[in-house]
Design a protein that fits this description.
This protein has about 70 residues and is an all-alpha fold. The chain has three helices and no strands. The longest helix has about 30 residues. It is elongated.
Length: about 70
């Protein structure tokens, strides 16, 4: 992979990670303001899945490779 392709990969990965993080923030806000009382368990599961996805993206070894 050439430097330009690596940079494009990093940009796209960063954008997608930012979108996922904004979805997580929206879920947190919704849980604090509008969620029905019986929706907390499902929301916790949603947030857990997003947290795992975000962690995997942020610790992806390809990030270091592409930065090199």
């Amino acid at each position: 992979m050439n430097p330009h392709e690596a940079y494009q990969w990093l940009v796209e990965d960063s954008r997608e990670t930012a979108v996922l993080d904004s979805i997580r923030s929206l879920l947190v806000w919704d849980q604090r303001t509008y969620i029905p009382s019986r929706g907390h368990a499902h929301r916790a599961e949603q947030r857990g899945v997003l947290t795992r996805l975000l962690h995997a993206r942020r610790t992806n070894p390809l990030i270091d490779e592409h930065l090199s």
